[in-house]
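Lecture notes, continued. The same structure-token format from the folding unit now serves as the input rather than the output. Read the line below as a description of shape only.
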């Protein structure tokens, strides 16, 4: 199993009372709530935390893309990945991921990712997403065009990485007379492509096509949903003539570790509940705008996302669903080992800073997780591998 640190870079200094005035911290929350001086400190703190993760032995460091919100301050994740590229030497660096339908020129993403792949010497992982519904409000983009723009942008980027240029590309949304990428990617034929998702049937079937076989990541979902969609991935791969491995399945989950279960819950509670009740909250029409989902996917995804953003979001409730792992090292280690085996996943993305969690608790959480959860699980897996 590989372990990755996933960071959202939230605006941890948010005045939470403002989320009582506004129905969401996305799109509509006035940017007068953002203090650039505090932002300066937060960005550098968060980069320090990601760099610290490499020294703790994490296999990779993950950033992502969101717009116009306090939930995640990474509108241009390539900037953060570039900063990490020169300050790290071993860990993989993943952008999970760029929202392809939102851009008017996908070649800029092809260039950005090829550049990062060159700087890191092949440590780069490319993540492609459609972007959640709120992003389409921020970018004034038509969600009904989301699927076809995603697929066309993907095809253009992969061709730019793999074909000798210059060549012409003609599509419905993107047209170029000269595609001639400089620099070309460091990895051959291109960086690994990962697909984070909330469980769209079309996304899973597309990712498992024999020409792609992309790693699929289920993000911030109840364990029951993770089990359902990872099985769906394996079943889709089997129908298309190949067998999915654990390395092609991953799970992203927030986690907090302290010396005892009681201490962990006491320390995590205000920050975890702020994450689910304040930072993640948005109205249904913003989460799933008309045209964003096909009829085929609407039922399952709507239920899964509704569970994530509504209803009981106490610490006990999100822990019971498996959407948040919390406890002593032994408790969290047993939970993760059990879930990983049950789900058949080979890549675990843990979010060890969330919402308003301060720097001191984040650093201790990272250290305890690395030494007392990640380390023993790795040792156990290695011993089993040698025994077999």
């Amino acid at each position: 199993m590989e372990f990755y640190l996933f960071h959202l870079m939230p605006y941890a200094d948010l005045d939470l009372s403002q989320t009582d005035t506004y129905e969401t911290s996305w799109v509509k929350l006035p940017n007068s709530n953002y203090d650039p001086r505090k932002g300066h400190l937060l960005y550098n703190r968060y980069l320090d935390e990601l760099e610290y993760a490499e020294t703790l032995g994490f296999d990779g460091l993950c950033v992502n893309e969101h717009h116009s919100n306090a939930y995640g301050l990474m509108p241009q994740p390539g900037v953060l990945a570039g900063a990490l590229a020169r300050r790290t030497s071993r860990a993989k660096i993943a952008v999970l991921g760029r929202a392809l339908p939102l851009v008017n020129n996908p070649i800029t993403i092809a260039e950005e990712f090829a550049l990062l792949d060159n700087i890191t010497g092949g440590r780069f992982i490319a993540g492609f997403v459609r972007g959640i519904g709120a992003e389409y409000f921020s970018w004034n983009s038509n969600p009904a065009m989301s699927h076809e723009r995603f697929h066309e942008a993907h095809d253009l980027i992969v061709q730019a990485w793999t074909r000798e240029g210059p060549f012409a590309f003609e599509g419905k949304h993107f047209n170029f007379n000269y595609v001639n990428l400089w620099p070309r990617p460091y990895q051959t034929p291109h960086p690994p492509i990962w697909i984070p998702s909330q469980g769209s049937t079309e996304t899973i079937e597309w990712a498992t096509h024999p020409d792609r076989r992309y790693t699929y990541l289920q993000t911030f979902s109840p364990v029951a949903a993770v089990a359902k969609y990872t099985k769906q991935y394996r079943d889709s791969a089997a129908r298309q003539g190949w067998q999915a491995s654990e390395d092609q399945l991953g799970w992203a989950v927030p986690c907090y570790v302290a010396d005892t279960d009681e201490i962990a819950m006491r320390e995590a509670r205000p920050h975890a509940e702020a994450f689910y009740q304040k930072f993640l909250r948005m109205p249904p029409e913003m989460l799933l705008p008309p045209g964003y989902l096909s009829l085929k996917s609407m039922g399952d995804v709507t239920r899964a996302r509704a569970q994530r953003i509504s209803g009981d979001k106490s610490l006990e409730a999100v822990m019971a669903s498996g959407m948040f792992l919390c406890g002593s090292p032994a408790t969290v280690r047993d939970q993760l080992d059990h879930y990983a085996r049950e789900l058949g996943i080979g890549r675990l993305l843990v979010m060890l800073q969330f919402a308003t969690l301060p720097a001191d608790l984040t650093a201790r959480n990272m250290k305890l997780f690395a030494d007392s959860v990640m380390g023993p699980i790795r040792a156990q897996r290695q011993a089993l591998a040698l025994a077999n």
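Point for the exam: The radius of gyration is 20 Å.
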